[in-house]
Amino acid sequence: MNTRFLETFVMVANLGSFRAAAQQLNVSQATVSSRISSLETELQVHLFDREFHVTRITAAGAMILDKAQDILATERNLRETLSDPATPVGRVRLGLVSSVVHTWLCDLIEEVARCYPRLELELTVEPTPNIAAAFERGGLDMLLTTDDRHDETCVCAELPPLAMGWFGPEGMRDEALTLSDVASSPLITFTRNSRPHANVLSLFSEQGLRPTIVHCITSLAAIARLTRRGLGIATLPLGCDLAGPGLHKLEVDAELPSLPLYCVWRRSSDAATHKAIAELARACAERHHQLS
Fold first, then answer.
1. If phi over 0 gives left and psi between -120 and 50 gives alpha, with beta otherwise, what is residue 32?
2. 79, 99, 134, 227: which could join 234 in a potential S-S bond, CB 3.0 to 4.6 Å?
3. How many other C-beta atoms can be found within 10 angstroms of the C-beta atom of residue 190?
4. CA Rg, the chain, in Å?
């Protein structure tokens, strides 16, 4: 989620006017309207009533106003903490799972660019075992992964987890399903033996169920595409950028376990830079967790 959009929302809410907010932010009124519309689309709620040329915050907008202000305050504090004049220069090779790519990675890239404009990121997106092996070989400096790591040579910081949900195609939008209903349909989920794959199978097993067909796919984009075509029910992170037309969150009577996330880096001469990036990752993950 773009924090500039949140800042615009808070400004409009506090001033009670799109025009006043545009003047305060030194942007056009059309830009303010566009940012609010984008935020409403992402959150799937109306934040303001715009009837009769009067701007009034909606009940949904009022519910998230305090959280939005807290997020902006946290971001300001984080930037102040990391505003070290000795700006790191160089490259960080970051291995990460696709669940992060489709949720808060863009926020992290944006924050790293703001705090460390001379720092380059080289990204490798692979399943957890692959990036763990590359890290072990010395091919990666940091990991954003679903498995923790117990190693005296490394730091393993726990991040806010990703909430998971059931997703289906357009034709299933208004259906209320049981876990038994899901088990009788083809299931489209993550790589075999991955954490999310194991979690979903355990959920079925706890209720004495077993999915009839399980398609295991590395790419979340491919999972979403197959689901839109009506080829099964998918498990995906809530708030991911793949949801939208043709792909809808389903109401199922069994909640999926959250997906744990960890940031891993070595205790080396670059540990301070890696720790700073990890703190940025924590803030982005927390912001996504609050809003998903």
1. alpha
2. 227
3. 29
4. 21
Distances (CA, A) of 257 to 73, 123, 135, 165, 166: 30, 27, 27, 9, 11
3-state DSSP call for residue 284?
Answer: helix
Q: Which two tokens stand for residue 280?
A: 């940025």
Confidence (pTM): 0.69
Neighbouring C-beta atoms of residue 244, cutoff 10 Å: 12
Percent of the chain at pLDDT above 90?
53
- Say how many C-beta atoms besides its own lie within 10 A of residue 123's C-beta: 15
Average pLDDT over residues 278-291: 93
pLDDT for 80 equals 61
CA angle 105, 38, 22 (to 5 degrees): 110
Asked if the model's pLDDT at residue 14 lies above 70, the reply is yes
Residue type, 191: T
Chain centroid offset of residue 280 CA:
13
Which spans in the chain are helix H? 3-15, 18-25, 29-43, 59-81, 98-101, 105-115, 128-136, 179-183, 195-206, 220-228, 271-291
pLDDT of residue 149: 87
Q: How confident is the model at residue 16 (pLDDT cuts 50, 70, 90)?
A: confident
Distances (CA, A) of 39 to 34, 46, 61: 9, 9, 11
Which pLDDT tens digit goes with each residue over 43-63? 888 888 877 667 888 888 888
DSSP states of 200-218 as a string? HHHHHHHTT---S-EEE-S
Kindly report the length of the chain: 292
* pLDDT classification of 85: cutoffs 50, 70, 90: very low
pLDDT on residue 253: 93
